[in-house]
Amino acid sequence: MEWKQIPLGPLQTNCYVFWNDNKDCLIFDPGGSGDALIRWLEKEDLNPVAILLTHAHFDHIGAVDDVRDRFGIPVYVHEKEAQWLIDPSLNGSVLFMMEEKISARAADYILTDEQKLVIGSFHLTLFHTPGHSPGSISYYLGDEHVVVAGDTLFMGSIGRSDLPGGNSQQLLASIHDHLLTLPEETIVLPGHGPETSIGHEMDGNPFLNGY
């Protein structure tokens, strides 16, 4: 399987596209610049099968409807942020005084806590990792030794917990209980910035020391 990190939208949020040998692909967090993302997908001759959201803050959902409508694919979000997807006052675009309020239509599939998810040939394990937001999800692709962590864990840092619905102790517990229990070689794909690994963050992330 291959994947690509594509920063999109006003905050350069990392969108991730994973594809298999058949060119079927999953799209994680299409945060904006829908036309550019669609052009890239079509240039690469990929066949999107689903949009998966790590959470529903405005900078992660800006191109959801563009991509969903172009390819006729479903959108997945955690149940605690199902309403955030459609309500700018919840997803942060009102709070941050965006000139254009960002929202999307309701998700097609509502996810709950830890579960297995199979979409075509893709097999994922879902970890509910709240703290940055109440419905944050990390998607673990065990066969690829990769976790798509959204805004939960970054290289040398952790997600913000000072936004509505955030909780710093909950965030640290999510990281320790779900992410740091993964194999150290697991690649961490964060919502912003460069990729890292579980081992690297265990050894050197200053926000995790002494928890």
Automatic annotation (TrEMBL):
The keyword Hydrolase applies. Keywords: Hydrolase, Metal-binding, Zinc. The keyword 4Fe-4S does not apply. Residues 12-192 form the Metallo-beta-lactamase domain. Its cofactor is Zn(2+). It comes from the Bacteria. It holds the Pfam family Lactamase_B. Transmembrane segments: none annotated. Signal peptide: none annotated. GO terms for molecular function: hydrolase activity; metal ion binding. InterPro entries: MBL_Glyoxalase_II, Metallo-B-lactamas, RibonucZ/Hydroxyglut_hydro. This is Metallo-beta-lactamase domain-containing protein. The lineage of its organism: Bacteria, Bacillati, Bacillota, Bacilli, Bacillales.
